[in-house]
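help with these tokens:
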Amino acid sequence: MVSNAVMLTFLYAIEPVYNVLNMSLSEDYFRLLMLIVVVVLVAILAERIEKIRKLNELNQKLKIQTDKLEDANQELEAFAYSVSHDLRVPLRAIDGFSRILVEDYEDKLDEEGIRLLNIVRDNTAKMGHLIDDILLLSRASRQEMKLNELDMTALANSVYQEFQTDVEGRDIQFTVGDLPHAYGDRAMMGQVFQNLIGNAIKFTRSRNPALIEVGGEVKDKELVYYVKDNGAGFDMKYINKLFGLFQRLHSPEEFEGTGVGLSIVQRVIRRHGGRVWGEGSVDEGATIFFALPKDMPKQK
């Protein structure tokens, strides 16, 4: 039998050891020894099989939870898009009727009434901006990506030109380095530069001159870009809030905004397989970095 042949082979293999130790050999003894070895091996194998089974169960549970989380995120994004879109109509009505009251019934309203109506109009305008930003965030998560090689230098300069009405009359020194080309969706990467350059223009409002620099370089397997300014900056102890949705590090009285822009930047960069981070100091400016993979990223 095969088992006997294996046993005899094993017996002859270790026989020299027993000879050296002056120990006697017997077939029964080695049958017992072989049985012990087999039992130990079966126990080890059973333990490993059980660990693999438990690991497979955990992976399956993790996959289920991941699928549920992804479904919940998609539902939340769809809800945000729907609500934001549906809010536009009543918001326009509030703004329109408030404007009619101010323009056509001004002689029948006292100063306090006109002031209150203007507050209503200002707040509907803020709500309109917030809805626009929520829709942009939703699109950044949902829209299909069309990946192409991008001239990032040309893209940054093009985006800055769109802000000419905002920078008119200001002393701004805007510089763009020789940025490495990247693979990405042009519209979405344009949105990234719009938010970063727009923030730099906004937060350098009190600087004369305002310094805004866009740079980039190749680092290992990444393309690292940054937008740097000498504006209001921020306290690094609040860095964890920098890219949070609706998180603001400055009061509305200091700087307007909805707290959505950097969330859009982070969402777009992550969809491109990259990462984003920031550095800053109060009253000394800020630098927002983002890194993209050198090779064409997988769509997310």
The chain is about 55% helix and 15% strand.
